[in-house]
Amino acid sequence: MIETPRIVQTVAQLTAVIPVTVARNEIRTVMGPGISELMATVAAQGIAPAGPWFTHHRRTDPQVFDFEISVPVTAPVQTKGRVRPGLWPVMKVVRTVYQGPYEGMGAAWGEFNAWVQAQGLKTGQDFWEVYVAGPESGADPKLWRTEFSRQLLD
């Protein structure tokens, strides 16, 4: 279900973000419009994405999603509406890739977290999902790829 996790060092990356806090069951209704708003605002500022869009989940709560819809960018963005500048910081993370439909991500995260725990690794609360290939890349969800990352603590 997931690729063998690995430990990697990230590099600092400028981002454009929209902070979102919604009930878990509202995630599907806010994600699409949020991505559209984010990409339109970045494009209107003449800034190019520097990679695939992602989400940065700031707080783990079974009922509430507190996260940022994000895209890496080639230059700093100016605050406009809900869009603001952000940064993916330098840090050591444990990372894996899940391939399959979004509906399978919960089980994939469970598998990933179990692997992390079995290795005795300590992670922070935040986590990231990079949508490497999704519906925009093809209709077959079995080919979609999502990268999962969790910050490692010393």
- The CATH C-level name is Alpha Beta
Give the radius of gyration: 15 Å
Strand content: 35-45%
CATH homologous superfamily designation = Regulatory factor, effector binding domain
Number of helices: 2
Give the SSE string: EEHEEEEHEE
Q: Name the poorly predicted regions.
A: none
Task: Record the strand order, biggest sheet.
Answer: 1-6-8-7-3-4-2-5
SS elements, strand count = 8
| Shape type | globular
Quote the average pLDDT.
Answer: 96
First and last CA, distance: 28 Å
Number of domains: 1
Helix content: 10-25%
Major sheet characteristics = 8 strands, antiparallel
Q: What is the multimeric organization of the chains shown?
A: single chain
Give me the CATH architecture, please.
Alpha-Beta Barrel
CATH topology: Multidrug-efflux Transporter 1 Regulator Bmrr, Chain A
Structural class: alpha+beta
Task: Report on the architecture of this protein.
By secondary structure, this protein is α+β, with helices and mostly antiparallel strands. The chain has a single domain, classed as Alpha-Beta Barrel (Multidrug-efflux Transporter 1 Regulator Bmrr, Chain A), CATH 3.20.80.10. The protein is built from 2 helices and 8 strands, in the order ββαββββαββ. Strands 1-6-8-7-3-4-2-5 form an 8-stranded antiparallel beta sheet. β3 and β4 (64-72) form a beta hairpin. 25% of the residues are buried. The model has no long low-confidence stretch (mean pLDDT 96). Pfam families: GyrI-like. This is AraC family transcriptional regulator. Residues 3-153 form the AraC effector-binding domain. It comes from Corallococcus sicarius.
